[in-house]
Design a protein that fits this description.
Elements lengths: L19 E6 L10 H9 L3 E3 L10 H5 L3 H18 L2 E7 L1 H12 L6 E5 L14 H4 L5 H4 L3 E2 L10 H12 L10 E2 H14 L10 E6 L8 H9 L4 E6 L12 H16 L10
Parallel strand pairs: 1-2, 1-3, 3-4, 4-7, 7-8
Antiparallel strand pairs: 5-6
């Protein structure tokens, strides 16, 4: 999925009264696919959903390292402004680094973001499987030096569900499947670091309601990331701790819980009464 399209792949519909849009932002080195389950559920519930591909993603390492965090932000911002033009209100959700971009959108566009749903928000790479040299990497300030680093993906792909991990490994090993940039290039990690440095001073200004879902066993970003946000955000922030998921909560074992809590959050914001069965 490239560019900003609605979850059903149709041309965006016209503006109509009462329509609520949801922007979902994927993570660093990720794709909109990691948000598909959530997007499909929100679409079925009647929300207008957009899942843009961030600049430099869904391609090669060279494509990714040619971009900056400002490029990623511009992709998300363009999708936000498009939804705002068609909807009465917009809620923004993001996974991992996508959650950090969502925070930046809310800080820069407080009049356009009615709420935030943050999945495994990642300010600091401090999970148990993060390489030891990640701490030293915080001292890196220049792209030339950052290019000497790379951060391999966890062997479990940030997913606790063993069946899903096996499926991903088989898919990646299939003949004719191009190698995906699963490892994070140092340059991209540096840009992510710069994004975090830019958003940290703004977090206290964000007053929109926030829902956070973070796994207790996050192998990439410790639960302290979400706890810090809950303490620092300038508005109401609800934290749901997931007990049976790793980092990619939108595809892991408790994805149904993530969808259900997201729908409840959206329905509360919009005053919508809903009776719906969520399928895992």
């Amino acid at each position: 999925m490239r560019g900003c399209i609605d979850q059903n792949g149709r041309e965006p519909g016209p503006r109509r009264a009462g329509k609520t849009g949801v922007l979902l932002v994927h993570g660093l080195c990720g794709t909109p696919t990691e948000l598909r389950f959530i997007a499909n559920g929100l679409t079925r519930a009647g929300y207008e959903v957009a899942c843009p591909t961030l600049a430099g993603h869904c391609g090669t390492h060279a494509d990714l390292t040619a971009t900056t965090w400002q490029d990623w932000y511009a992709s998300a911002e363009a999708a936000l402004l498009d939804l705002v033009s068609r909807c009465d209100r917009v809620i923004v959700g993001g996974l991992s680094t996508g959650a950090v971009l969502s925070l930046m959108l809310a800080a820069r566009h407080p009049d356009k973001v009615a709420g935030l749903a943050l999945y495994s928000p990642t300010l600091w790479l401090n999970g148990r499987r993060v390489p030891w040299y990640a701490g030293l990497f915080r001292l890196v300030r220049f792209r030339a030096l950052a290019s000497l680093f790379h951060f391999p993906a966890p062997l479990d792909f940030g997913i606790k569900d063993e069946r899903l991990r096996s499926f991903i490994k088989s898919a990646l090993a299939a003949p004719g499947v191009p190698a995906l940039p699963i490892a994070t290039p140092g340059i991209a990690a540096l840009e992510r670091q710069r994004l975090v440095e830019a958003v940290l001073p703004l977090i206290g200004r964000i007053t929109a309601p926030v829902l956070m879902l973070h796994p207790r066993e996050d192998d990439y970003a410790d639960l302290s990331n979400a706890s810090y946000l809950q303490e620092t955000l300038g508005g109401p922030a609800d934290l749901v701790v997931l007990e049976d998921s790793y980092h990619l909560v939108t595809v892991d074992r408790q994805r149904g819980v993530v969808l259900e809590r997201t729908l409840t959050f959206l329905d509360d914001l919009t005053g919508t009464a809903r009776v719906q069965q969520i399928a895992a």
